[in-house]
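Record type: ASSEMBLY
Status: queued
Input:
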Amino acid sequence: MHIASLKQLPIREGKRVLVRADLNVPLDKHGNITDDTRIRESLPTIQYLLKKKAIILLLSHLGRPQGVDESLRTDAIAARLEQLLKQHVIKLDDCVGAEVEDHINEMHSGEVCVLENVRFHPEEEANDDAFGRGLAETADFYVNDAFGSSHRAHASIASVPQHIPGAAGLLLDKELTMLGKALAPRKPFIVVLGGAKVSDKIGVIENLAKKADKILIGGAMMFTFLKAAGNTVGNSKLEQDKAALAKKLLAKYRNKLVLPDDVVIAKKADAKAAAKIVSTAAIPAGWMGLDIGPKTIAQFITELKKAKTVMWNGPMGMFELAPFANGTKKIAQAIAQLRATTIVGGGDSAAAVQQWKLAKKFSHVSTGGGASLEFLEGKKLPGIAALEASALRFGLSK
Ligand code: ADP
Ligand code: MG
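Status: finished
Output:
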């Protein structure tokens, strides 16, 4: 089974190409893009298609809307793309249906359009095949350049390439090549996990533990584990329904999972909050843990120095606020200095690495968070499986 690459698609002038990109950029509370990495990472594929004089239709999700959500429209993305491409970018207010098709039929070769947030339609996440067919009807070819979404069997990822010929975009290609290097990691292989999306990430620990020598746990994720280990965690962010799983993992992988010894706490998650450092065994009621402490940083760095391969996903603390940024910064700097294969994944983690100008010092900054973790677990991503099926169905060569 193989997937076709973008250059194998017979794209000629005027052909409509639907590009499922991952333009799910972080926004501040005013709707401004705080990190445009994902848009910039999508440029090589867009520029290739511009050279081919195609009609380029960009499709992405943005955030987690429940139906139409005014704050999650893709207008800011279109505006930023217009600056980056230095050419006009059309923005449509939907991604499917007769009106959208009418607009697209009026487009000329070399024009770019950003479609509306695909998750405004619940059919997207339900992987509704009729919806996928509707999306496919707007185009002649499909390109998946959304590595960060390829672990989800959603219609724009899994269904569309069953209806029109589909191939991997240049970014997806690069991600698969770079992450492929970590599939058979040189040992010791150290995984660093943090961030806030515990329920998304805790499931991968079981699989990663088989390959990893150590899994260092920080971020909000640590409190679910600390609680499971019998600690009190005050008002720290907890995912109570994962406590049983955390307890099981702790018992099974006692020698691999490393939990923090100390933690930076505050009464409020606030840039001006008075913070202090306490043992993770003594988090007082009414306080919340917002970063790993100095002892933990030193311990994590000791482990990291032994590594030949490092996979890092999820900030060690609420790094957006200065009093809680130290853990993430110190760990990022330590990983950046290693002579090892170093991979960072996850939108917020990648943003942290960009912010401290460390990106070039990593072997690879993946645009995929969950996708990079699942890929490293050795799972076949639904988006990749769909491209394989598309190559077979439409007779596309490698
Ligand atoms: P990524 O995007 O890298 O996969 P996540 O989305 O899982 O990471 O989590 C990133 C978020 O986790 C950041 O916004 C950060 O503020 C938050 N975070 C990290 N540590 C904590 C903590 N101790 N308490 C609350 N939030 C935290
Ligand atoms: Mg995130």
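Annotation: The longest strand covers residues 16-20.
Annotation: The two ends are 10 Å apart (CA to CA).
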